[in-house]
Amino acid sequence: MSEINVFFNDYGCRGLYGGLGAKEIYERKGLNNDQKILDYMGSTELAANLFCATQTEERIRRENITGDDEVNKTYYEVGSKVRHIIAELGGTMPENLPVQERSNLQTGNWCDSGIDITGLIGD
């Protein structure tokens, strides 16, 4: 892998979403291939994915993890740990969260805080 692409990596999805890959998540949420899944996540689901992404990226860099197999294993492990934390806290699993018509990511409002995050997280 020449570039670390932690946001919504299929291995990370499988960890965070209880074994479901990106394709299954799209199907479960009723989204088509033309839609960007991040645009249809509410703040809870988006935060779980962002936390997973940042922690995976940090671990890969901190531990100098290389090679596709090891990087993918790290994606999965971090996603699984985030899922475990959600369960431990009594939260709703990401695959069971509703699809949002317009997420906070699309509107630029993070958690209705009024903070403009436009441009901070990819497109």
Summarize the structure.
The protein is 49% helix and 0% strand.
Radius of gyration: 14 Å
The averaged pLDDT comes out at 82
Structural class, please? mainly alpha
| Gap from first CA to last CA | 21 Å
Shape: globular
Number of helices: 5
What is the H/E order?
HHHHH
Low-confidence stretches: 1-7
Strand proportion: under 5%
Task: State the oligomer.
Answer: single chain
Number of domains: 1
Number of E-state strands? 0
**How helix-rich are the residues, as a percent range?**
40-55%
Biggest beta sheet summary: none
Care to describe what's here?
The protein contains 5 helices and no strands. The protein has one domain (10-107). The two termini are 21 Å apart. The radius of gyration is 14 Å and the shape is globular. The model is unreliable at 1-7 (pLDDT under 50). 49% of the residues lie in helices and 0% in strands. The longest helix has 21 residues, at 68-88. Helix 3 (43-62) packs across helix 4 (68-88).
